[in-house]
Amino acid sequence: xxxxxxxxxxxxxxxxxxxxxxxxxxxxxxxxxxxxxxxxxxxxxxxxxxxxxxxxxxxxxxxxxxxxxxxxxxxxxxxxxxxxxxxxxxxxxxxxxxxxxxxxxxxxxxxxxxxxxxxxxxxxxxxxxxxxxxxxxxxxxxxxxxxxxxxxxxxxxxxxxxxxxxxxxxxxxxxxxxxxxxxxxxxxxxxxxxxxxxxxxxxxxxxxxxxxxxxxxxxxxxxxxxxxxxxxxxxxxxxxxxxxxxxxxxxxxxxxxxxxxxxxxxxxxxxxxxx
Length: 275
Ligand SMILES: [Mn+2]
Known about the structure:
The structure is a single chain. This protein has 275 residues and is an alpha/beta fold. The chain has one domain: TIM Barrel (Alpha-Beta Barrel). The protein is built from eleven helices and nine strands. It has helices at 25-35, 47-52, 55-62, 73-78, 87-105, 126-146, 167-177, 188-194, 198-205, 229-238, 255-269, and strands at 3-9, 21-22, 39-43, 65-70, 110-113, 151-153, 182-187, 209-214, 244-247. Helix 5 (87-105) runs parallel beside helix 6 (126-146). The longest helix is centred in the middle third of the chain and has 21 residues, at 126-146. The model has no long low-confidence stretch (mean pLDDT 97). Bound molecules: manganese (II) ion (MN). Manganese (II) ion binds at residues 114, 154, 187, 213, 248. Manganese (II) ion binds next to loops.
């Protein structure tokens, strides 16, 4: 059964980014539970910060799951990426993510590799960058498996990376690299820009789909843009998707409204979720 999830950012430098709740983890968990969400996804600055939070108590008090952990703080705060031309920076990026994987896995949460994939550059050509990225994904996926969780890899739109834009390309990269413990993250906002058909791309993922970022065409809450959710819901139903729909959207007009609109859309379009 599909489950509902909402994002919380604890990264001040990411302000203006597409996260529903900000700063106050306890208040966000209280709101999320009151609105009927099953889980939260946390964007944190580091594994150290995550480990210092009273996460176990907060999640238990509100009976919420921790669905996923974003690793993009490594990019936002330190400009680290897995496709850097510098071997030292690639290693630092991998170490940063490995620690995030461990911090999330303690709560059963998957780590997400999105902006940490980086981009190719004048210093490193596309094939080499993709080679390094694939190797890192395979190693980090294997590490996540030892912690009992898969790793999530998210293709981004062309304005955010020049490496991998569509789910099929991501799938091919993972297959080439032998990254068997890595699942695909389908972000509907990126897909609306890059995919020929969102529904067909989701269907092709099958059981390799591990997580969905639910957003509308304008990165606002589902239903506030022009995406057609009916074929998307049908596609997820067809592949028996049993993961999360996680609202990764701007807090517009404010956090509470964006969260409530998301829950309305989930209940309207994705029958099994939100009950
Ligand atoms: Mn996303």
